[in-house]
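Reopening this one. Same input as before:
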Amino acid sequence: MARLDPQERADLPDRAFAYIDARGRRRLPIHDPAHIRNALARFGQVTFEDEGARERARLRLLNAAKKHKIVPIGFIAGQLQSERTLGQHEGRPITLPSGFVTMLMTDIEGSTALVQRLGAGYHALIDEVWAVLRRCVAMLGGDEVEARADEFFAVFEAPRSAGCAAVSIQREFAGHGWPVDADVRVRIGIHSGYPTSTRTNYVGVDVNATSRICAAGHGGQILVSANTREGVKASAPDGVRFTALGHHRLRGLRDAVPLFQVAAKGLPTRFPPLRR
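Same output, byte for byte:
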């Protein structure tokens, strides 16, 4: 990206900057696509006088990105994650269950198209998405592990609770009145195992397996591993059943994994072949 020399910078109007501080210094040039991309990358390094100034700069930057047809997915994801992390550390320390646990992951189908359509309005949409997910997870005794971009990760001590939460999530999404008539659908993957726990997260092959199972599905679909199916089937809620989908090769996993689709009243049952 070409740098602005002092004269070029002085010749730009105030509207060509995302932020002008109380001393009149103009920060984050946004007068062309190259400088907008640079401003998006540097936004988190700028010290603002208050939250109002930060929010005004953020909106001006997002509007500039929209004008030049730049999709700031990484910027939006970073902002959302930093806000959640701040809120987490302002509250009580997180204590996640260890040992044999059931992991549930979701992501939004067609999230890139939604970002392109909604622009800055995507922030409000994702807040609403997370509110639904958090409510369903909390009602079934689950713990939120991580939420970033269009992905959500929760953990449960009992496989049945994870399955019930997944059904609840899909029912809520199907009947929810989303803003600006957005068609918001999530795919859900569930796997039970013994991940390695850190202070605030999990790592290991079982986490990777859960992520790959989620990625294989489609919006509105719930996929579970054989481990989870075995843990749920003996105590499955009335009306919940499992459809065997065969063994599937999932990226990054050595062996093919048997997958099952969860079916329940009010949920769709027909989907395209699993994604690879």
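So the earlier flakiness isn't reproducible anymore. For the record, The first helix runs from residue 6 to 11.
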